[in-house]
Amino acid sequence: MKKLVMKKYIVSTITALLLGTSSLFAIDAQNSTINPFEEIRKLQQQMDQIFNRFHQKFLNDAAFAKFDSSFAASPAIDMQDNGKNYTIKANIPGVDEKSINITQKDGMLTIKAKSMKEKEEKNDKFMKKERFVGEFVRVLTLPKDADADNLKTEYKNGVLKIVIPKK
Fold first, then answer.
1. Distances in Å between the alpha carbon of 70 and those of 37, 40, 65, 114?
2. pTM (2 decimals)?
């Protein structure tokens, strides 16, 4: 039993060193069990932090400023189960309703929208530019009982609302 715990500790320590994190796996010495779902959740949180730091550095680096408009943003969403249907709300500010494209295939719902390009004068010098102009894309895996063929949409005040009935 002690050998198994020691092996798990050594493997987790080596993995943590390779990934540059402190203690990736928390081992309960009394239980000597590892909850794989908890470890995956921790790893996901650490990866989110790494990507958030990279994204912040990327956005603040003037050398990469010209690439910013070529990447698609992923709008924040809320998804609710209302009993008879699912409701999805996505923040997609600054787009024309006609530019929103919603498709579904094989249980995947894709939301795409393009925000309007602003005319920029070459002589304009921005001290700071944070408003997004470009394309929004979000792909969602729908529950198996979602009837995406009969979805209804509404776009109001920068929020896209999608209601998908259940089968």
1. 36, 32, 10, 12
2. 0.53
CB atoms near residue 29 (< 10 Å): 8
Per-residue pLDDT of 105-151, as tens digits, reads 988 999 998 876 555 555 566 666 666 667 888 889 999 999 999 99
CATH assignment of 70-119+128-165, among 3.30.420.40, 3.40.50.1820, 2.60.40.790, 1.20.58.760: 2.60.40.790
128 alpha carbon, distance to own chain's centre: 25
Domain ranges, ordered by start, for the chain: 2-60, 70-119+128-165
Q: How far is CA 50 from CA 57, 61, 143, 162, in A?
A: 11, 17, 29, 32
C-alpha Rg value of the chain to the nearest Å? 22
pLDDT digit string, tens, across residues 70-118: 455 678 899 999 999 999 999 988 788 999 999 999 889 999 988 765 5
Sign of CA dihedral 48, 40, 137, 92: negative
Q: Is the distance from CB of 79 to CB of 164 less than 8 angstroms?
A: no
